[in-house]
């Protein structure tokens, strides 16, 4: 019967809705049936005897039960009452047996037979009987009826109704229990639940079928939410469902609100943040006052507009809720500016939630950053008398220099601080240090000003301390007439016991107070381009005594940086001609380059006949496609395929210097005149064997060649290190692991002859050394030149450290970041906190010596602050002074979003896990601090969350910075942009961000950010290329055994050898190689069949599905999708067929009778595709030569990751394949159910990213035993 109904609903016809039901005729009324008004007078139904003195208002309308009922229209055709017919004013009637309200027996016995009852005014759900069975009711003009059992012929209709009502109840309870659940989490919940008797197993198809009803019920439940509650409809899974199914939110329906018998209240996922006194003081006092003060001046972005059409928007203000009471028209102050709780527009709430989706990375792929040009300071001249004091100290032809001056009535001396009046009165006075002063020939009295940044001019913006300044290298020559007055600037020194001050009472006596409006302090310097707050640098020495009267340390530092970044030649050897003067040495960025040095060059420095060609999508021409068979193929018009490497650049070229020369015979050599002759080294992909060799060879293997190229030195981007493999005293892998940018060769390549040969004699000595490790001793004749060459060619080793950092990992997950820091050799993971039991167990499996706490992090910190040393189960808590490195990624649920940062949002932030994490930092005061979070962290609340986080760290005394890193740049086959906040204790060196090691898709490498219309980037200079090629899906997965849909064997053998460098490295050196967790989710028969019909060609997804009927694995058949409407936007197909599947494509409202189910092409995708970029990527296959989208916590073909199908197999990606996409070694263990394991992987920091950050941290841990970069070089590189 249900099949007939669905087929009739899908029937392509222009007749009225009722004609869909013309074949479902009512078989007849119950025997002896009477009309409704007569039946209701039967004594069996009446609870009253007529002698009552008073009848309550609610009892004046009779309420009865109804069993063995059927619903039909005026023509006697059976109809579903839940499909919108009542809303369309279709008269629906019903027949059956009426029973008294107290009756529990659902049989017709003792019932009153009735016919033609109605018409139905509304239907409703009044609760759940025992928690599972919905109590459904009808209302007519005469009575209310609670439904019991339907008639046999009407049972299929009621099964559908009960299914969607039970599903709605289940989903609302799920939303109350979970924090920010994803669409994939919702699917998993439905697919793993055991439904009540009589209801079929839930599938994604049934979820999408009932999406409108479910969303209406969630909205109905949200109507009872308080102003402080987050609407359930804005959760990620409900937004995804509404988008996929094309749900219309907030429409009026003739359906009474669904009520759960016991109204559940959402329980908080975490306790209120435990804060140290410093953090608490900042949030309770400083920020609250400042944000209130700045509230009217801060631009918080465009105000969202109501949709104006939903039921909520059309409600009047209730006048009773707190928001209304604050309104001026109801006698309030009008400060709150919140909408009436009854008028909260769900469409506006969903739009705000979409904008602030923490994982919405696509919005940054094509982001164009437009920045206000940095304007020069313009000063206002004041009417003041200016008189020099004392004799001149020096003079030249242009200037006469002095030590002091009187401006107005104030004496100003060198090294005093002054306030300079800007021309724009809206700008506060600039603060400057007077470095030196002079009078020019025209009599103008000026001084050289070294500017100090006000906090408001930094990334901190309105969260900064109004009297805190930051040192800078910005200088200007300023007339004394623009000086308003002197001011006091105090250097706030770091207390000697700084590390012990966590959670101590703040001594207000030591706090600097601005009593005269001219008192400031500073403790850090600030670099605007990279938002770095660092300890002040020591002033450079002024060498020539004759320049002391005009020496500026800031300008000297800028010159030092400029010289550092400019190549210079030394050791002139020979003049071969006026156009070729030979030199022995180039110094560039702190490195020495000589003959014998190997260098990275820009990718276009060499011309190669063979290059990596990331194949373009094999496009079928539109006219060659059978549009009746593939009706959605026309949507594939865009060239961009998510996860394709078509725009990935080539890695650096590599050359071996054999001569340094200058092309002009001048004593002053311009950088553009410095040239080098280099031997051209070939990567495997540049040989005629191309892809085959590239896929098998080590990433750092190259081929020697005797081809020599002339290259301008400005093409050099850095230094690398080369060795002939036979000269190594250890294995290639061991040698490679000891330091960065190491390459080796075994053979030479002849491009003309296409041959691989033994390297020539002069090449096989490269990398030759004595047996003592690290000492390069050439076996040939020792010369001074050869020793110099050996020294500059000696590979840099990673800094040796005698003791690893004692590490606490908070919000540790399964330990991705810890694993990376451990691989980098800097972290001793002693403690970890992870609330989720499965993830905590995974952490224990991989770190057996770590104490893993599963307590709430706030409770743990409270215990430590209260002096406790163990938790309830006897685990020792880390104490103050023990933690040297704090790392973690606090979740941002509860306050994430880009809407206004009002008092409620501020309160949520104060009690968030980010603040808890900052309190951990303040209490333990570690030497180094790492915080990882989603890319969108930068944008939450118009960047207020980022600003408050940095402000807290600065207030503690930390040096800190932030930056966006792309994990794909560090050797994983996945795009994953993350914000990394780094901090270092006073006196330590603030780490740099690691330069990319691998090239990656340009589309996914937009890493600059915009805060308050200012652009910020990291210190990384390798933005166009990198040392190694990108890692592809093929590199990562090709060696794994083939498995089927739903494979659940957790341990198996590899069956194949590792092929690629990535595979060899990821397998490691297991004693008994065993492949774990190569298991995948089982997809429903319809989903599995869809996957089987997705082609294996590049860029394939749901738009390539054929519109056919197919036998599914459970023996049932799918249906063809019918196109019933003329979509004016996209037109008709080449055969004249319609392309619309719902009346909404013609500008009308969605019609529930248009829905189709069990089709190979999911009906919901063409239904909503026009407004969602054609749902590109859903049911998409990974591309062998491409990369993963950001790995999510649960791979679903219609989830937001989209391309989660194996490149060629009929299944979604396995747990181990996802782990490899994150760079986890195959030996790394996960714990729990398959969903637990997917969640652990999706929430983790990719270990290779952790390794890269760890190596930068390592440079900041001082040890004099090896060659490494000096502190000065590190400081210069930061500029």
UniProtKB/TrEMBL annotation:
It is found in: Nucleus. It catalyses: a 2'-deoxycytidine in DNA + S-adenosyl-L-methionine = a 5-methyl-2'-deoxycytidine in DNA + S-adenosyl-L-homocysteine + H(+). Residues 300-346 form the CXXC-type domain. GO terms for biological process: DNA methylation-dependent constitutive heterochromatin formation; methylation; negative regulation of gene expression via chromosomal CpG island methylation. Keywords: DNA-binding, Metal-binding, Methyltransferase, Nucleus, Repeat, S-adenosyl-L-methionine, Transferase, Zinc, Zinc-finger. CDD domains: BAH_Dnmt1_I. Residues 410-537, 633-760 form the BAH domain. Its main location: nucleus. GO terms for cellular component: nucleus. One of its GO terms (molecular function) is DNA binding. The active site is at 892. SMART domains: BAH (SM00439). Its EC number is 2.1.1.37. The keyword Transmembrane helix does not apply. Pfam families: BAH, DNA_methylase, DNMT1-RFD, zf-CXXC. Belongs to the class I-like SAM-binding methyltransferase superfamily. C5-methyltransferase family. This is Cytosine-specific methyltransferase.
